[in-house]
Amino acid sequence: MALEIVELARTIRERDPARPGWAESMLCYAGLHAVLWHRLSHALWRAGLKGLARFSSHIARFLTGIEIHPGATIGRRLFIDHGMGVVIGETAEIGDDVLIYHSVTLGGLSGQPGKRHPTIEDKVTIGAGAQVLGPIRIGRGARVGANAVVVSAVAPGCTVVGIPARPPRGQEPCQDPSIGYGLGTADEDPVGEQLAAMRAEIALLRAELGTLRASQREGV
């Protein structure tokens, strides 16, 4: 456990631009505490003490603001930055050296038993507010932009943004250092594009409805 604390603290010091000291990294980062607490909860879960495991994870959520189901599998050096509002489901699998920002959900789309949460491979970055849903795989080194909604697999090394998530136009994979907070290139707005398309479709439907009503009045 002591070695893992040091390893997690070293990861925080290397990856957080604030460059905290050792004591700050160990004492003031909820993501570190949540991962360590999950190790205990996961051990209890694997031992068949599922009620106790759930209670342990519930305490961890209360203390850290991060909810990790004790059944989830987490690799080494997971860095949950800020962390508040992160939810990781029961059958989620997370590899090594993954970076997750606050308000991220690794959730399911089905209420049926079995594998229903994502698999996150090594060195993936998931931006703030992103929702990764279903038994999909996020490939090694991929990046998920802030507030993206991902419901299909992401290839290794690929960056995806928007709703639904897709690779940004005109951008090489994984070149945006602010992917945790931004949506790719400054002149791109995938959400705005979807809203504009919906407005155009609504206008077309209204025009067709007006034509239909006019023809009905003429028939009367």
From TrEMBL:
The gene is cysE. GO terms for cellular component: cytoplasm. Its EC number is 2.3.1.30. It comes from the Bacteria. It catalyses: L-serine + acetyl-CoA = O-acetyl-L-serine + CoA. The keyword Transport does not apply. This is serine O-acetyltransferase. One of its GO terms (biological process) is cysteine biosynthetic process from serine. It is an enzyme of class 2 (transferase). PANTHER family: SERINE ACETYLTRANSFERASE. GO terms for molecular function: serine O-acetyltransferase activity. InterPro entries: Hexapep (IPR001451), Hexapep_transf_CS (IPR018357), LbH_SAT (IPR045304), Ser_AcTrfase_N_sf (IPR042122), Ser_O-AcTrfase (IPR005881), Serine_acetyltransferase (IPR053376), Trimer_LpxA-like_sf (IPR011004). Keywords: Acyltransferase, Amino-acid biosynthesis, Repeat, Transferase. Pfam families: Hexapep. NCBIfam families: cysE, EPS_EpsC. It comes from Falsiroseomonas algicola.
